[in-house]
Specification:
CATH architecture of the largest domain: 3-Layer(aba) Sandwich
Structural class: alpha/beta
Protein name: Acid tolerance regulatory protein ActR
Number of strands: 7
CATH superfamily of the largest domain: Response regulator
Strand order of the largest sheet: 2-1-3-6-7
Helix content: 40-55%
Pfam family, one: Response_reg
Function: Member of the two-component regulatory system ActS/ActR acting in acid tolerance. These data implicate that a two-component sensor may be involved in pH sensing and/or response.
Strand content: 15-25%
Keywords: DNA-binding, Phosphoprotein, Transcription, Transcription regulation, Two-component regulatory system
GO biological process, one term: phosphorelay signal transduction system
Number of domains: 2
Oligomer: single chain
Largest sheet: 5 strands, parallel
Number of helices: 9
CATH topology of the largest domain: Rossmann fold
């Protein structure tokens, strides 16, 4: 049996009612397609959006029972989509995804009504578990959390993007020598 076909997934969905509508909002098109296929095989009725505007429009047209929303989208913040979903349907089970996790945005996402906050690339099984967890249920620690080198690299990438890919400004904000930053940016992401 492959990773997309798990017998316990339908058991997890069994107690959640007949409405299996799932809105996926992410601007990474290949990731969005893979996740949509994986979630469809797990019994969800999928709708996808590639932007904040699309996500809000789909939410207003057909408020979903479940939602997986990326935090950073090209046209804004996924938190705006979470707020729109909460306004349209209070019982939607929402999970935030991000490649740039930090405590402040995690707290904001939870305050807006997200059940969980997962780092990308998230496994479809982890997303299903987060969507179907019972209130008060604690999530398991990840088997292979990001290494310290990877966390550092992710932080540098986040600041680099916030500085509109300006190396000099990024180096200044990180209190790092410009050439050191250029060497780090030229390398592949650590595992």
């Amino acid at each position: 049996m492959n990773a997309l076909q798990t017998p316990d997934t339908n058991d997890e969905l069994a107690g959640l009612g007949d409405d299996r509508s799932l809105l996926l909002v992410d601007d990474d098109a290949p990731f969005l397609r893979r996740l949509a296929r994986a979630m469809e095989t797990r019994g969800f009725d999928i709708e996808t959006a590639g932007s904040v505007a699309e996500g809000i429009a789909l939410t207003k047209a057909r408020p979903p029972a479940f939602a997986v929303v990326d935090l950073r989208l090209e046209d804004g913040s996924g938190l705006d989509v979470v707020a729109a979903i909460r306004e349209a349907r209070a019982d939607t089970r929402i999970v935030m995804l991000t490649g740039y996790g930090n405590l402040a945005t995690a707290v904001t996402a939870v305050k807006l009504g997200a059940l969980d906050y997962l780092a990308k690339p998230a496994d479809a099984d982890d997303i299903v578990h987060a969507l179907t967890q019972q209130p008060g249920e604690k999530t398991d620690l990840p088997e292979n959390p990001m290494s310290a080198d990877r966390v550092r690299w992710e932080h540098i990438q986040r600041v680099y993007e916030m500085c509109d890919r300006n190396v000099s400004e990024t180096a200044r904000r990180l209190n790092m020598h410009r050439r050191t930053l250029q060497r780090i940016l030229a390398k592949r992401a650590p595992r």
